Amino acid sequence: MPHIFLTGATGYIGGEVLHVLQQAHPDYEVTVLIRDEGKAGKVSAAYPNARIVLADLDNVDIIEEESRKANVVIHAASSKHIESVKAIVKGLEARKDGYYIQVTGASVLSGPEVDNNSYGEPSDQIFDDLDKVADLRNIIRAYKSRRVVDNYILDLGLSGPKTAIVFPPIIFGTGKGPVNQRSIQIPSLSRAALQQRVGLYLNKGLSRWGVIHVSDLATLFVKLVEHAVNDTQVPIWNENGLFFAESGFESFKAIAEIIAKEAHSLGYIDAPDAVRSMDLEEANAVIPDGIAYLGTNGQGQASRARRLLSWQPKGDSFPKGVHEAIAAEAARL
Questions:
Q1: Which has the least CB within 10 A, 3, 207, 231, 290?
Q2: What class is the 3-328 domain?
Q3: What is the pLDDT of residue 290?
Q4: What is the pTM of this model?
Q5: For the chain, which residues make up each domain, given as ranges?
Q6: C-alpha count within 13 angstroms, C-beta hemisphere, residue 313
């Protein structure tokens, strides 16, 4: 029986991965790392067959031990905790045949704009994770101090476990995980729009990111798990194990316009085209230190998953996800 070790099961991404994995493969043995007893109870109630390990990411001996037992480790709890990453690798190296899937983020693509303090400007550069994967590797390498985990995994080469790194863009949709079901960018922009009765974008709002429904993102993780369990001979690991996930691209001005339209349809904004620009200070108030997430370009084309994993986004449309987020944020205010 395949054994999966998952961190981050109480989070937005990890919770959805757990849900989709349990739906698709109830026969898999799943162990989840959870640090909070209250949250562990919610996970157990929703997924009684999942084995709970109470520990946090600093308990590296436990993480190493659980990784050694697993065929596949999914690290969805953090993209920056290097000691837990090292523990996973050490555990998988001991068993010789393990697979490791790490979540990170498409913000890796925003490095040059952050360096230049340039926000809201358009870019014609799209990073293709299959045909131009070398460009993605190069930008990861260019930011070793900021992307410590990504670089550590790439540096393993063929000497460690088989690895894959997933770079989510803007994620939307209500998650089905047992604890956190809320994303960040779209709910935060929706909340700000409700409070100010206008859709908001940073500077010109012409920078673009990919968007993906959380269920489609989780399905990508499960596709990778399936290929690992079946040990398929497809170039999707190690230096080729770099995956974007998107169902298209949206500029932040277009996102503001969709938010305004959907908020107007729900009666929360007076005009369906009520949008305006905000400066850096205001953007950082919408999401703390969020200018890199609201004003840069994160255009990563998910060619590898589509062509090598037969992955296709099937979740709700982006406008429907925005509509859902606005209604949820209005209920919270």
A1: 231
A2: alpha beta
A3: 87
A4: 0.97
A5: 3-328
A6: 21
